[in-house]
Write a structure and sequence with these properties.
By secondary structure, the chain is an alpha/beta fold. The chain contains five helices and four strands, in the order αβαβαβαβα. It has a two-stranded parallel sheet with strand order 1-2. A two-stranded parallel sheet has the order 3-4. Strand 1, helix 2 and strand 2 form a beta-alpha-beta unit. The longest helix has 11 residues. The protein starts with a helix and ends with a helix.
């Protein structure tokens, strides 16, 4: 993920659970991080309304986004529900 940031890509973490401790353990600071308990999200994946709110609040165009996740049944469906591309994390790691 650091490579992506170094190349000018924006890295956003979106989780069903609080992410601060996980990110601290990895010594990684994304550009943005959100979780389902944030006041303006209040839903869990695969409900796509939460990620839609994140995208809209940041002003990104959906064609510019790649959603990387580890579970199609949650992450993939969430991405599909917002019209953004999805890639399984295992495939993504192979490409970077």
């Amino acid at each position: 993920m650091r490579k992506l940031q170094a190349s000018g890509k924006t890295v956003i973490i979106y989780s069903d659970y609080p992410v601060k401790e996980k990110l601290d353990a990895l010594s990684f600071t994304p550009d943005y991080s959100f979780w389902s308990g944030d006041g303006f999200i209040e839903c869990m994946k695969p409900d796509s309304s939460g990620i839609a709110r994140v995208i809209d609040s940041l002003g990104f165009d959906r064609v510019e986004i790649l959603y990387v996740g580890d579970r199609y049944g949650r992450d993939g469906l969430c991405a599909e529900g917002t019209g953004i591309d999805y890639m399984d994390v295992k495939e993504f790691v192979k490409k970077i």
